[in-house]
Amino acid sequence: MTVQKRYLCFDNSYITKFCFCLSSSILCILAFVAGSSSHHENGNETDGLRLIPSDHTVVRYTNESLIVLCRNTLADTKVHWKSPKGDIIKEHKGRIHIEASPTSDDVKLVFMHISLADKGDWSCEHAGGGDKASKLFNLIVYQKITFTENTTIQTVKEGTNATILCEVKGEPQPNVTWHYNGQPITLETNSTKFRILADGLLINSVTQNDTGEYTCRAYQVNPIASDMQERTVLLKIEHFK
């Protein structure tokens, strides 16, 4: 029996051919994939450089660590890392340093105890002359909420002004609200009694009625997480004699 076949083929941008073989009794799909060995899921590597991890943006909190490998696949070439300021990283130890592979031209960039000053574009590039191929990643650094004060009890004299300190650090900068015995302090109704400072709360002419717990609540929101931290100070009023 003679089987007549007809072929319907499609070419896509990756030079992949799908041929549908049609006959009276058979439907078969043949896939042929041809392409350059330099094509990868992480993009074209004709420049011979690849970062691992390959994320263009890397997010870390302060005091965390990070290692990024620059893989060099071009023979007889060297690579180096540059900071966001354009400085070549040459140190082989320290908070930020490089580690060269003993068996290849790959170079690791190592961060220990990341700081806010480390944010920016870090690039790996060929060290030779001419047009230098490069790969970069953007390091974004956040800082969790921290309080610089740890006092939990404060005593002031009746009739004086009291300042309850609450200096908050974080990146992005946290928003701060104040509460007295669990209730929010609103300046709309207490503008003469309270004044919110950059690093605390000012209470004018304290009386025995101002005794209680004052809570500083800090809120922080960034693209990957949100957080709320608080510290409470018990204010005691010393009777005026």
From TrEMBL:
Ranges of residues in domain Ig-like: 143-234
Transmembrane segments annotated in the record for this chain: 14-34
GO term, biological process aspect, one: dendrite self-avoidance
Assigned keywords, A-Z: Disulfide bond, Immunoglobulin domain, Membrane, Transmembrane, Transmembrane helix
Cellular component annotations (GO), alphabetically ordered: axon; plasma membrane
Record SMART domains: IG, IGc2
Magnesium in keyword set: no
A GO molecular-function annotation: cell-cell adhesion mediator activity
Alphabetical list of InterPro entries matching this protein: Ig-like_dom, Ig-like_dom_sf, Ig-like_fold, Ig_sub, Ig_sub2
Record Gene3D superfamilies: Immunoglobulins
Protein name per Swiss-Prot or TrEMBL: Ig-like domain-containing protein
Organism (species): Glossina austeni
